[in-house]
Design brief:
mainly alpha; about 60% helix
Length: about 210
Protein backbone atom coordinates (compact mmCIF):
# COMPACT_ATOMS: atom_id res chain seq x y z
CA UNK A 1 0.00 0.00 0.00
CA UNK A 2 1.26 3.48 -0.94
CA UNK A 3 0.28 7.02 -0.09
CA UNK A 4 -0.99 8.74 -3.23
CA UNK A 5 -1.43 12.14 -1.58
CA UNK A 6 -1.52 13.77 1.83
CA UNK A 7 -2.93 17.27 2.17
CA UNK A 8 -3.61 19.46 5.21
CA UNK A 9 -7.23 20.51 5.70
CA UNK A 10 -7.59 24.06 6.99
CA UNK A 11 -6.53 24.01 10.67
CA UNK A 12 -6.58 21.84 13.81
CA UNK A 13 -4.21 19.08 12.67
CA UNK A 14 -6.61 17.77 10.03
CA UNK A 15 -5.28 15.94 6.98
CA UNK A 16 -6.79 14.33 3.92
CA UNK A 17 -5.06 11.15 2.76
CA UNK A 18 -5.49 9.09 -0.40
CA UNK A 19 -4.15 5.54 -0.57
CA UNK A 20 -3.28 3.43 -3.61
CA UNK A 21 -6.32 1.19 -3.09
CA UNK A 22 -8.56 4.20 -3.78
CA UNK A 23 -9.32 4.99 -0.14
CA UNK A 24 -9.76 8.67 0.63
CA UNK A 25 -10.39 9.86 4.18
CA UNK A 26 -9.58 12.54 6.75
CA UNK A 27 -7.87 12.17 10.10
CA UNK A 28 -6.60 14.27 12.97
CA UNK A 29 -2.86 13.97 13.53
CA UNK A 30 -3.16 13.74 17.32
CA UNK A 31 -5.07 10.46 17.03
CA UNK A 32 -2.11 8.74 15.38
CA UNK A 33 0.38 6.81 17.52
CA UNK A 34 3.11 9.16 18.86
CA UNK A 35 5.77 7.61 16.63
CA UNK A 36 3.80 8.59 13.51
CA UNK A 37 2.71 12.09 14.46
CA UNK A 38 5.96 13.73 13.36
CA UNK A 39 7.21 11.03 11.00
CA UNK A 40 7.91 11.55 7.28
CA UNK A 41 4.68 9.65 6.54
CA UNK A 42 2.65 12.52 7.97
CA UNK A 43 4.64 15.29 6.31
CA UNK A 44 2.70 16.49 3.23
CA UNK A 45 6.00 17.47 1.61
CA UNK A 46 7.47 13.96 1.73
CA UNK A 47 4.58 11.51 2.15
CA UNK A 48 3.50 11.21 -1.49
CA UNK A 49 4.44 7.85 -2.99
CA UNK A 50 5.70 6.37 0.25
CA UNK A 51 4.92 2.76 0.99
CA UNK A 52 3.21 2.02 4.29
CA UNK A 53 2.95 -1.15 6.32
CA UNK A 54 -0.31 -2.83 7.33
CA UNK A 55 0.16 -1.47 10.86
CA UNK A 56 0.65 2.08 9.55
CA UNK A 57 -2.43 1.78 7.37
CA UNK A 58 -4.40 0.59 10.38
CA UNK A 59 -3.13 3.58 12.36
CA UNK A 60 -4.32 6.02 9.68
CA UNK A 61 -7.72 4.35 9.49
CA UNK A 62 -7.94 4.31 13.28
CA UNK A 63 -7.23 8.04 13.41
CA UNK A 64 -9.98 8.57 10.85
CA UNK A 65 -12.40 6.54 12.98
CA UNK A 66 -11.52 8.75 15.94
CA UNK A 67 -12.25 11.86 13.89
CA UNK A 68 -15.69 10.52 12.98
CA UNK A 69 -16.39 9.77 16.64
CA UNK A 70 -15.17 13.25 17.58
CA UNK A 71 -17.56 14.90 15.13
CA UNK A 72 -20.44 12.89 16.57
CA UNK A 73 -19.38 13.86 20.10
CA UNK A 74 -19.24 17.56 19.21
CA UNK A 75 -22.76 17.40 17.77
CA UNK A 76 -24.01 15.94 21.05
CA UNK A 77 -22.11 18.52 23.10
CA UNK A 78 -23.63 21.30 20.99
CA UNK A 79 -27.10 20.10 22.02
CA UNK A 80 -26.46 19.77 25.75
CA UNK A 81 -23.78 19.46 28.41
CA UNK A 82 -22.40 15.91 28.49
CA UNK A 83 -20.66 13.81 31.11
CA UNK A 84 -17.87 11.35 30.35
CA UNK A 85 -19.83 8.16 30.95
CA UNK A 86 -22.97 9.39 29.23
CA UNK A 87 -21.15 10.60 26.14
CA UNK A 88 -19.20 7.35 25.92
CA UNK A 89 -22.42 5.32 26.00
CA UNK A 90 -24.03 7.47 23.33
CA UNK A 91 -21.05 7.21 20.99
CA UNK A 92 -20.79 3.44 21.39
CA UNK A 93 -24.54 3.14 20.82
CA UNK A 94 -24.01 4.98 17.53
CA UNK A 95 -21.53 2.32 16.45
CA UNK A 96 -18.19 3.92 17.30
CA UNK A 97 -15.59 1.49 18.64
CA UNK A 98 -14.54 1.78 22.26
CA UNK A 99 -10.90 2.54 21.42
CA UNK A 100 -11.97 5.49 19.27
CA UNK A 101 -14.42 6.68 21.92
CA UNK A 102 -11.77 6.56 24.65
CA UNK A 103 -9.34 8.57 22.54
CA UNK A 104 -11.97 11.19 21.77
CA UNK A 105 -13.12 11.43 25.39
CA UNK A 106 -9.51 11.95 26.48
CA UNK A 107 -8.97 14.76 23.97
CA UNK A 108 -12.26 16.54 24.65
CA UNK A 109 -11.66 16.30 28.41
CA UNK A 110 -8.22 17.88 28.01
CA UNK A 111 -9.89 20.72 26.09
CA UNK A 112 -12.57 20.93 28.82
CA UNK A 113 -15.31 20.47 26.27
CA UNK A 114 -16.55 17.78 28.62
CA UNK A 115 -16.10 18.20 32.36
CA UNK A 116 -17.85 15.95 34.87
CA UNK A 117 -17.62 18.56 37.63
CA UNK A 118 -19.24 21.22 35.45
CA UNK A 119 -21.86 18.75 34.25
CA UNK A 120 -22.69 17.71 37.82
CA UNK A 121 -23.10 21.29 38.99
CA UNK A 122 -25.39 22.23 36.12
CA UNK A 123 -27.40 19.04 36.51
CA UNK A 124 -27.94 19.65 40.22
CA UNK A 125 -28.93 23.29 39.68
CA UNK A 126 -31.54 22.26 37.12
CA UNK A 127 -33.18 19.89 39.62
CA UNK A 128 -33.05 21.79 42.90
CA UNK A 129 -36.70 22.80 42.76
CA UNK A 130 -37.88 19.22 42.36
CA UNK A 131 -35.23 17.26 44.24
CA UNK A 132 -36.40 15.46 47.37
CA UNK A 133 -33.08 15.19 49.17
CA UNK A 134 -29.28 15.29 48.78
CA UNK A 135 -29.21 11.50 48.89
CA UNK A 136 -31.61 11.26 45.94
CA UNK A 137 -29.45 13.71 44.01
CA UNK A 138 -26.38 11.62 44.81
CA UNK A 139 -28.01 8.38 43.67
CA UNK A 140 -29.22 9.97 40.43
CA UNK A 141 -25.82 11.45 39.62
CA UNK A 142 -24.03 8.17 40.28
CA UNK A 143 -26.56 6.41 38.03
CA UNK A 144 -25.45 8.77 35.26
CA UNK A 145 -21.88 7.58 35.61
CA UNK A 146 -20.50 10.30 37.89
CA UNK A 147 -18.13 8.94 40.55
CA UNK A 148 -19.45 9.08 44.11
CA UNK A 149 -16.68 11.40 45.37
CA UNK A 150 -17.21 13.81 42.44
CA UNK A 151 -20.98 13.70 42.94
CA UNK A 152 -20.70 14.45 46.67
CA UNK A 153 -18.32 17.33 45.98
CA UNK A 154 -20.69 18.82 43.40
CA UNK A 155 -23.68 18.56 45.74
CA UNK A 156 -21.81 20.29 48.57
CA UNK A 157 -20.72 23.04 46.19
CA UNK A 158 -24.17 23.75 44.76
CA UNK A 159 -26.45 22.95 47.68
CA UNK A 160 -26.10 25.84 50.14
CA UNK A 161 -28.00 25.99 53.41
CA UNK A 162 -30.89 28.03 51.99
CA UNK A 163 -31.42 25.51 49.20
CA UNK A 164 -31.26 22.69 51.74
CA UNK A 165 -33.90 24.29 53.94
CA UNK A 166 -36.23 24.73 50.98
CA UNK A 167 -35.70 21.07 50.12
CA UNK A 168 -36.32 20.05 53.74
CA UNK A 169 -39.57 22.03 53.77
CA UNK A 170 -40.83 20.08 50.75
CA UNK A 171 -39.72 16.82 52.32
CA UNK A 172 -41.37 17.66 55.64
CA UNK A 173 -44.62 18.61 53.92
CA UNK A 174 -44.82 15.23 52.20
CA UNK A 175 -43.83 13.53 55.45
CA UNK A 176 -46.65 15.32 57.30
CA UNK A 177 -49.20 14.22 54.72
CA UNK A 178 -47.99 10.64 54.98
CA UNK A 179 -48.12 10.57 58.79
CA UNK A 180 -51.15 12.81 59.27
CA UNK A 181 -48.96 15.38 60.99
CA UNK A 182 -48.87 13.52 64.27
CA UNK A 183 -45.57 11.68 64.16
CA UNK A 184 -42.64 12.40 66.51
CA UNK A 185 -40.37 15.23 65.23
CA UNK A 186 -37.44 13.07 66.26
CA UNK A 187 -38.47 10.57 63.58
CA UNK A 188 -38.45 13.35 61.00
CA UNK A 189 -35.00 14.43 62.18
CA UNK A 190 -33.70 10.88 61.81
CA UNK A 191 -35.14 10.61 58.30
CA UNK A 192 -33.64 13.94 57.27
CA UNK A 193 -30.20 12.76 58.42
CA UNK A 194 -30.60 9.53 56.46
CA UNK A 195 -31.51 11.55 53.37
CA UNK A 196 -28.19 13.38 53.51
CA UNK A 197 -29.26 16.78 54.86
CA UNK A 198 -26.67 18.64 56.91
CA UNK A 199 -27.05 18.94 60.67
CA UNK A 200 -26.98 22.74 60.40
CA UNK A 201 -29.87 22.86 57.94
CA UNK A 202 -31.91 20.30 59.90
CA UNK A 203 -31.47 22.17 63.16
CA UNK A 204 -32.30 25.53 61.62
CA UNK A 205 -35.44 24.15 60.02
CA UNK A 206 -36.72 22.32 63.09
CA UNK A 207 -35.89 25.20 65.44
CA UNK A 208 -37.78 27.58 63.16
CA UNK A 209 -40.97 25.53 63.07
Amino acid sequence: MNIVSLKPEARNELFRIELSDGSLFSFRNCYLPPELQNAPLTDPNSAEGREITAAEEEAFRGASACLRAEKAALRLIARAEQCTAGLSRKLEKRGHERASVNAVISRLSSLRLIDDSRYSGLWIESRLRLARSPRRLLVSLCARGIGRDDAETAIKKVLDEEAEISMIARYAKKYAKKTGGGDDPRSLKHLLKSEGFSQAAISRFLDGE
